[in-house]
Design the sequence.
């Protein structure tokens, strides 16, 4: 727990609405989370990242923040948050909270004040208000599109338009304004003073916009979009880094950076900026040895010049659950593939997800586990349309089912919904499949063959194995369909992504395997950790 803990931490993502319900309203909350801290301790993680817990109308499940320095009543109170932080810390678990600086909620008092003020007023300058185009200003100021579908502009009654890269309920802040900067500084300090150990930065590359707001279609191909990765964003993170560095707890940042250019990505991880960024190329890669080897090599090469640790991420609350993704014909993550259901062989997907767990938990750097990954939960692809809550569903004119399928409340115990998530008889905010009995934490706890046991064992070994907590990796000679690498003096991981069983290299002991060996060979879609000396 000391000295640059973030360079090799195992971090578990909590999606508060869906983790555990302590108050009996069908929605996860801080009371539920506090009840389950023992489970997280037993799992063996070093830190938690919590998706937003702030006051919010929940137009985008809390990524629309109305008060950055208070807790939404759905989840509890500020006192509950402080008690939770103290309890997590007492167990040796650090806590990273989400910060949402690109946009707020349309219910944020400053946006409400901007709506009430006149065009050109100082209140409106905190956001991106502009007159429209067309004869009567009836057309949006430019051609930018919202990430959730439709134009990125909404018109207000006096005729002006405001920018929102996401839902209309999420107006974008104007980061050129000193008051916006100063207020986020206050927010960072507020939570650091309460002992949080870091921040996950939502849409970290989008804060600064090209002030000319040019049409995207007119720009040459290859130029970054005018709302993304603008050079001015780095100045903000340098200021934030100095604030984190001045905290006694070694607080860190992890950026949500969906940039495709590795050099542009690395700029965010320079020593005086963010500590880490999510590895989305890894999360997006197909279950294919060549593709994964390339991603691992590129990741390490991208991070080395800036001295930042890599992160390894298989999934999160925005993408298809791994067991389902790896069971599909197309095993990549793409946003197109998340729009609707696709057939999946869950037995195959589970086998691969087990192997992928041993892969991601033994690569050099920090690793993220999204809640439910350790239970091998599949994506719930058949949620009834009437329960879909993701704004993508409405905004897309019901052509994109959105991300609710990976946000279904966790199954803890028992034979039927709500599976211990809520008290018996309570309807959870998204319905759980009736057949999740074998996937509950309780059912898996004593089962040596379960996904939960695999994660618990792997996380324990990761902590005990010095070779896994420092240094890089060395590829070992192998078939092209096999990933085989050594770490330190005596650790080897082999993952077979081919169809035929393969021989293992010489070893002293099998530390852990994701499935049974067959006549001493490693079967398809199986991984093994070896001690070689
Ligand atoms: C990324 C978050 O992970 C996602 O859930 C959210 O909808 C968008 N940012 C907008 O805040």
Sequence:
């Amino acid at each position: 727990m000391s000295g640059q803990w973030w360079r090799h931490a195992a971090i578990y993502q909590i999606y508060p609405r869906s983790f555990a319900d302590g108050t009996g309203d069908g929605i996860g909350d801080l009371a539920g989370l506090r009840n389950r801290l023992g489970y997280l301790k037993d799992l063996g993680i070093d830190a938690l990242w919590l998706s937003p817990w702030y006051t919010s109308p929940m137009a985008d499940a809390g990524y629309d923040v109305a008060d950055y320095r208070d807790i939404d009543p759905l989840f509890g109170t500020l006192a509950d948050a402080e008690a939770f932080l103290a309890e997590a810390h007492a167990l040796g678990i650090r806590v990273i909270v989400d910060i949402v600086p690109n946009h707020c909620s349309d219910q944020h008092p400053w946006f409400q004040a901007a709506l009430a003020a006149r065009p050109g007023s100082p209140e409106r300058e905190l956001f991106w208000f502009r007159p429209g185009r067309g004869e009567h200003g009836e057309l949006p100021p430019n051609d930018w599109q919202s990430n959730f579908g439709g134009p990125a502009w909404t018109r207000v009654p006096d005729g002006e338009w405001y920018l929102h890269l996401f839902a209309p309920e999420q107006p974008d802040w104007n980061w050129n304004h000193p008051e916006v900067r100063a207020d986020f500084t206050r927010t960072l300090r507020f939570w650091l003073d309460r002992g949080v150990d870091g921040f996950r930065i939502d849409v970290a590359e989008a804060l600064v916009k090209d002030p000319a707001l040019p049409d995207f279609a007119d720009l040459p191909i290859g130029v970054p979009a005018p709302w993304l990765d603008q050079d001015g964003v780095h100045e903000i993170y340098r200021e934030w880094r100095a604030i984190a560095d001045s905290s006694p707890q070694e607080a860190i940042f992890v950026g949500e950076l969906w940039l495709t250019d590795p050099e542009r990505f690395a700029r965010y991880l320079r020593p005086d900026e963010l500590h880490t960024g999510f590895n989305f190329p890894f999360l997006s890669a197909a279950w294919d040895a060549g593709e994964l080897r390339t991603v691992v090599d590129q990741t390490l090469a991208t991070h080395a010049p800036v001295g930042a640790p890599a992160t390894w991420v298989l999934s999160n609350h925005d993408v298809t659950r791994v067991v389902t993704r790896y069971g599909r014909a197309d095993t990549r993550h793409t946003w197109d593939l998340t729009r609707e259901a696709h057939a999946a062989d869950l037995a195959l997907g589970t086998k691969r997800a087990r192997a992928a767990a041993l892969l991601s938990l033994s690569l050099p750097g920090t690793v993220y586990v999204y809640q439910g990954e350790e239970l091998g939960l599949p994506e719930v692809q058949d949620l009834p349309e009437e329960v879909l809550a993701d704004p993508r569903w409405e905004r897309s004119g019901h052509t994109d089912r959105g991300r609710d399928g990976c946000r279904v409340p966790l199954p803890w115990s028992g034979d039927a919904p709500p599976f211990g998530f809520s008290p018996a008889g309570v309807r959870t905010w998204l319905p759980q499949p009736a057949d999740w009995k074998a996937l509950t934490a309780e059912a898996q706890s004593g089962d040596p063959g379960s996904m939960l046991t695999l994660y618990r064992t792997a996380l324990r070994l990761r902590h005990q194995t010095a070779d896994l907590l420092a240094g890089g990796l060395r590829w070992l000679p192998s078939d092209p369909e096999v990933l085989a690498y050594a770490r330190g003096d005596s650790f080897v991981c082999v993952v077979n992504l081919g169809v035929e069983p393969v021989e293992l290299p010489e070893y002293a002991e099998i530390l852990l395997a994701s499935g049974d060996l067959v006549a001493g060979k490693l079967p398809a879609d199986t991984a093994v950790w070896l001690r070689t000396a």
In short: The longest strand covers residues 94-99. The pocket of 1-deoxynojirimycin is lined by residues 60, 63, 100, 166, 202-203, 256, 317-318 (CB under 6 Å). The radius of gyration is 23 Å.
